[in-house]
Amino acid sequence: MRALFAATSFRRIFTRLIRPAHQKVLPLTNFRAMASEAKDITAPPADKQIIAHEGKRYVTVKEGLAHILVPEPSEEDKENLRPDQAVRQVFYNPIQQYNRDLTVLAIKAYGKEAVQQKQASHSKLEKIIEKKRKRQAQKQDQQPNKAQKGADGEKATTEPATDATTEQETDVPVDKGDEQATNGEAKKGKQPPFTVLDALSASGLRALRYAHEIPFLTSVTANDLLATAVESIKLNVKHNRLEDKVNVCHDDALAHMYTLIAKELRAKDPKGKPTMSEKYDVVDLDPYGTAAPFLDAAVQSVRDDGGLLCVTCTDSGVWASNGYPEKCYSLYGGVPVKAWFSHEVGIRLVLYSIQTAAAKYGLTIEPLLSLSIDFYIRVFVRVKKSPAAVKFQGGKNMMVYNCDSGCGAWSTQLLMRNKPSPNKKGSGVFYKHTFAQGPSVDKGCEHCGSTMHMAGPMYGGRIHSPDFIKRVLGELEEAPTDVYGTTLRIRGMLQTALEEILLTPEEQEAEKAKEEAIKAGKKPDPAFKEAELAAIDPYPFYFHPATISGILKCSCPPEAPLKGALRGLGYRVTRSHCKPGSIKTDAPWSIIWHVFREWIRQKAPVKEDNIKPGTPGYRLLRLGEKKKQEEQAEGAEAPKEQQSEQAEGETMPEVVFDEQLGRDDKTIKLVRYQANPRENWGPLNRAVGKVPSHHRKD
């Protein structure tokens, strides 16, 4: 009975692991019925079918338009192995479908624009080459014929200069871009190449989905170091009938990328010019753990004219905690924070490591979308070759001073300054890259007096591109829900990421002028481009009202009244995609503390005896000054320090907790934050590579 119960429980767990979240658990009787109807690997793929191949049996799992083969557990394995060991000979986590759905949509949004740019560039270059050839032919026709008279006095016919003409016509100077335009893939009537590298492919599911769901993709390389993974990818490619699009590679990811880089460096034409580039349009890094060891090779393997780099880091215990600052520094070049906003700090640390890896090669990055999702980070950045833009990067990195042991307030310190100055003509500006003044704070917190600690360096620019997010949302509108099972969550998170972008007044004016120029058919002012390169995020991070309420020992204000109070004072308020219940605002910390003090005074008085002297809450509520006032005799003059505190209190604006003003538009309901999809979910364990007993060779 125990063995029967164990086998039945195992079947239920196994079925839950391989099924999509929106489907019901397959009954045991149906599972047995399917097992008796095993099909060959050449059969058309379908969900939950049983495939028999070379004496082994697999269960088909469908995600998106792709199907992967998962080893069917044997009777012996059902009793002796854990469920995750039985189904994950190659690493596969169904919870990561959100990541894969989002990535497919992001590559579609990026790729459509990239393909259009390629087509326009190819067409333009073909016209230039054709004009060069016509001019060369005209020169040949205008040259006078050199007639020679023969011995009989007759005029000899001029020999045709076919060879010379052909040599001159074909010897047109053609640069690297021209070669790309005239290669076989770029000829008229053919689609320009669009290639993707799935560097750490595991089961090959990402590569299969890219090949199935991205119509303009010409080839995807699925690479993995594990031999069992490569065999699994080959089987999956064969079963999905994608041999013409998916190239399976058994290699170390670093070796594969550096081999491509070395080939690029050695490739020269007879004139010593670089030949056509074979770099990937998209490089996708989705490792188990950190992607830091692969960044140097990845930024060089992706196209340097705006290629897309997709990076996942699942080691949140390193970049989002204070337990391993030395490990975080060795991997990402910066130190994390001990704070509630640590996940956004993690995003900025990862972006900083990508930026520094690219800068040494004259490459600059533009973050398009950077998300903290569940237990990992996913970032999409555009990579371009621009030594001039690299000069701005020092002024887009920062240190953070954090009051982690006190009130939780923070202050930022840029490493350099990108200072605009008028040019000599007076018609525009140019940027000077100078040293930054510092430090921006004292060693003690200005609000509660606690010790400030440093974190960073980290990326200090914008972590999202509004235009890119809007394009991804546009792709989402056309995405069928039966293929992309996580559309509700994608829409909610992208909308939240779009809303958390708080532009400065100067940036708002520049964006408005740029849009007006585009509508009028004019080219935007070149100064806009440099301003975008120098732009930083003046309002990074977010705070948690419940955490602040805990420091002040008061009841937490509801979200709507708190937002209404800040908006009533003229500040903008939104939320962060990183954490539910977060508040992101352009209000300074002095205003935030003033609002909370007014909340306590107007709405939620606290028991002052419960707040110990010397604690951050005691100092923030200024209880020491209040007791001094009570102890002073009536009519006695207050000390100068107390008079200055009173004067400061009088100058602070009046706070009104307007609940109506604080309510957000709820006409469209969004799933902004993910609830736990199932019990014991998460990153799962690393794939063990253990072969089930019925897969072992005797």
Automatic annotation (TrEMBL):
Its EC number is 2.1.1.216. It catalyses: guanosine(26) in tRNA + 2 S-adenosyl-L-methionine = N(2)-dimethylguanosine(26) in tRNA + 2 S-adenosyl-L-homocysteine + 2 H(+). GO terms for molecular function: tRNA (guanine(26)-N2)-dimethyltransferase activity; tRNA binding. Residues 139-148 have a biased composition (Low complexity). Transmembrane segments: none annotated. It comes from the Eukaryota. One of its GO terms (biological process) is tRNA N2-guanine methylation. Residues 627-643 have a biased composition (Basic and acidic residues). It is an enzyme of class 2 (transferase). One of its GO terms (cellular component) is nucleus. Keywords: Methyltransferase, RNA-binding, S-adenosyl-L-methionine, Transferase, tRNA processing, tRNA-binding. Pfam families: TRM. Residues 131-191, 627-698 are annotated as: Disordered. PROSITE patterns: SAM_MT_TRM1. Belongs to the class I-like SAM-binding methyltransferase superfamily. Trm1 family. NCBIfam families: TRM1 (TIGR00308). This is tRNA (guanine(26)-N(2))-dimethyltransferase. It comes from Neurospora tetraspora.
